[in-house]
Design brief:
alpha/beta; Rossmann fold; 6-stranded antiparallel β-sheet; 64% helix; flat
Length: 733
């Protein structure tokens, strides 16, 4: 499995999104102090689940987010992603490429991502444990941490070695099995506690169930008697009820018919009475109408006489005007005028003027004649109008006479109908009286039957009460029988038998049927708990076996791994120091006790029995430098500790190669000769493990296939420059 690239966005000094590709087995990150090189190592440590902000050189979660500068604003979140090539399916998921990401926000919220989808930290840890990337993060050596494994406690050192050997996944499974075992044991305790709690109650219920069996026979006898008694009583009441209903059928039917007839008759009487009440108003209307017609006829007759007188008068005036002659005075006057005109003829000589005078005379005569027209035209027109009006009045008078006759006839018919309706109303009232008398007799008969029905109803209510009291002993459904009671005495005898059996049942001790049901339920629960306890015991046994197998596997793999690591450790140690010996030693309680007894041997190693008694279980490191009698780690110089820790780290990586190894300036304390050895060791290690080194050392840079330069400008943002030595060599050649 190969780490393909590292993607950063907003993480510490990397404000802008950058991507570091890792196509070669060794990739180097270089740059001046303070440019942000170590932030690359911190980002890898953080994305793989590091929870200590102090380890990441911060105080709060927001310290991991770019905080801005004079020329760039601060960001609201930071994110880092590691992309792995999963073509060989080392990760147990069906993706050819696996991207593990982490985000942090200003409010401190964290998100873990798996191929872009949100995931839990636990899922990420388990996934990484499958490929040897444990929580101890031994595969990431930060700046100044080269000798961290030397200064770690034996227990911490053991955890780091277990992570390096890929045993973390088995430890997670063992912890999960242990958690399940603890939960199972707790469940076993709870089940046992429940069994102890229900045992006394189960015994009590068992005793009650036995008592219930004793009373069951009496209950069956009572049930038989009650069913017989209640069935016969039910049939007896039903028979009497049916007889009474049969007796009531005809009277009720007849009463219903009579009541319908009374209702219809009353409606008819009310309707007729209403019409009789309305007759006087209609009669008054007829009389008023006749009076109005007579008055109108009299007025029309008067108007007719008046018109006839006017017409006679106008005809006489018209005849008088037609006989009148022209007066003498008018004739004399016109003659005098004509004579005057003629006398002027003698004075005129001109013929033309004579003709004019003649024309004037003609005009004078014509004007005179036109003023005479005989009788007055206005008088003739008025006479014609009055004649037409007279004809209309005569016509209207005839119509009035006809209307008056018609209304008078209707008035007579109305009087006849009123007398007939009054007679019918009296007959209907007599019929209503007769029907009501018959209805009273029927109601009296029905009232007597209702009284008997009321008595039967009381007996029925008493039966229902007895049935309700009998429900604890019989079925809820209404029982049936073949025959009813033959007499009251038979009913009373059977009822007394029922009462005697009830008393015996009470003396035997009445047991609620729910007790038997509860006994069955508690018994079933006891059986269930026993089975559950058996299943839990089997599960606990299986979990213990799993834990034992895992412990054996972890122990065997750990011992085998220590053996292999010791071989590689000694080889790398001799390479770094030019000789000497180095090994890892497993510390256990038994060994400490033994060593405490063998004090002389430890005194040679410089450790007293008192110191060994305080040692904790884990891994101890023994070193033997060439040309020096030094076996204690505390006696090593700074450079020697760095070389020893590097040798151990490389040994761990050789035995169980992690997917990648991040080394942050682990070569800072090495001189030139050791730097050459360190570079050779890197090249050997890169055959099995992908290396990402952050360095200032030229020897280390030479063995890298890709070189990333980190710079920082005035804006406080880290930037990347990349160089592939293969491409650079091709350009140079």
């Amino acid at each position: 499995m190969r780490l393909k690239r590292l993607e950063l966005s907003g993480f510490k000094s990397f404000a802008k999104s950058v991507s570091l590709e890792f196509p070669n087995s060794i990739s180097a990150v270089v740059g001046p102090n303070g440019s942000g090189k170590s932030n690359v190592a911190d980002s890898v440590r953080w994305v793989l689940g590091e929870q200590s902000i102090k380890t990441l050189r911060g105080k709060r979660g927001e310290d991991l987010i770019f905080n801005g500068s004079a020329n760039a604003p601060r960001l609201s979140r930071a994110s880092v992603s590691l992309v792995f090539d999963n073509s060989k399916k080392e990760f147990p998921i069906e993706f050819s490429e696996v991207a593990i990401g982490r985000r942090v926000y200003r409010d401190g919220a964290n998100e873990y991502l798996l191929n872009g989808s949100q995931a839990r930290l636990r899922d990420i840890i388990e996934l990484l444990a499958n490929v040897g990337l444990g929580s101890s993060q031994h595969h990431i050596i930060g700046q100044g941490e080269a000798d961290r494994i030397l200064y770690a406690s034996p227990k911490e050192r053991k955890e780091m070695i277990e992570d390096a050997l890929g045993l973390k996944i088995y430890q997670i499974k063992r912890a999960e099995a242990e958690r399940k075992l603890n939960s199972t044991e707790e469940n076993i305790k709870q089940v046992q506690s429940l069994q102890r709690e229900i045992q006394p109650h189960l015994k009590f219920l068992s005793d009650q169930a036995k008592k219930y069996e004793i009373a069951s026979k009496l209950r069956e006898e009572l049930k038989t008697l009650l069913e017989e008694y209640l069935s016969k009583k039910f049939l007896t009441l039903e028979k009497k009820t049916a007889e009474l209903r049969g007796k009531k059928f005809d009277p009720e039917k007849e009463l219903k018919i009579i009541e319908n007839e009374i209702s219809e008759a009353r409606k008819k009487v009310e309707h007729a009475d209403k019409k009789v009440y309305e007759r006087p108003a209609e009669l008054t209307a007829f009389e008023r109408k006749l009076s109005q017609l007579r008055e109108a006829r009299i007025e029309a007759s008067a108007a007719l006489g008046k018109l006839e007188g006017i017409i006679s008068f106008e005809e006489r005036n018209l005849k008088t005007e037609a006989k009148e002659l022209v007066s003498r005075r008018e004739i004399e006057q016109i003659f005098s005028e004509i004579s005057k005109q003629l006398s002027e003829f003698n004075k005129e000589i001109s013929l033309e003027k004579i003709f004019d005078k003649v024309a004037d005379i003609k005009k004078l005569i014509a004007d005179f004649l036109s003023s005479f027209s005989g009788a007055s035209p206005k008088v003739a027109n008025d006479l014609e109008k009055h004649k037409k009006e007279l004809a209309r009045v005569k016509e209207r008078l005839d119509e009035m006479r006809k209307d008056e006759g018609k209304v008078s006839k209707e008035y007579e018919n109305f009087l006849e109908k009123s007398r007939f309706m009054a007679e019918e109303l009296r007959q209907d009232e007599r019929k209503i009286y007769q029907l009501e008398s018959a209805a009273v007799k029927l109601k009296d008969e029905l009232r007597a039957l209702d009284f008997e029905m009321e008595r039967i109803k009381i007996l029925t209510d008493d039966y229902k009460r007895e049935l309700e009291e009998a429900k604890p002993y019989i079925s809820v459904q209404l029982p049936r029988a073949v025959f009813e009671f033959s007499s009251e005495g038979e009913s009373e005898t059977l009822r007394k038998k029922v009462e005697r059996v009830k008393i015996k049942l009470e003396e035997a001790g009445g047991i609620d049927p729910a007790v038997l049901k509860e006994f069955q339920e508690v018994s079933n629960r006891q059986e269930y708990l026993s089975k559950e306890l058996s299943d839990l015991g089997a599960a606990a046994k299986s979990l213990r076996e799993v834990m034992k197998e895992l412990e054996e596997k972890i122990e065997a793999s750990f011992k085998d791994g220590i053996h292999k690591i010791n071989k590689e450790f000694e080889k790398f140690f001799q390479t770094m120091f030019g000789g000497g010996k180095a090994s890892l030693r497993i510390i256990s309680r038994d060994m400490r006790k033994k060593k405490t007894e063998e004090s002389a041997e430890f005194e040679e190693g410089g450790l007293s029995p008192e110191v060994l008694a305080k040692e904790e279980e884990g891994i101890d490191i023994n070193v033997d430098l060439p040309r020096k009698k030094i076996r204690s780690l505390d006696m090593l110089s700074g450079g020697e500790r760095a070389l020893a820790s590097i040798a151990l780290l490389f040994a761990l990586s050789s035995v169980h190669p992690p997917p990648f190894l991040v080394l942050d300036e682990t070569d800072a304390a090495l001189d030139e000769a050791n730097s050459q050895r360190y570079a050779m060791m890197l090249e050997d290690l890169s055959k099995t493990t992908q290396l990402i080194v952050i360095t200032h050392n030229r020897a280390t840079m030479k063995c890298a296939g890709v070189l990333y330069g980190v710079t920082m400008g005035s804006d406080g943002i880290s930037k990347l420059l990349s160089l592939k030595f293969e491409e650079a060599g091709a350009l140079v050649s």
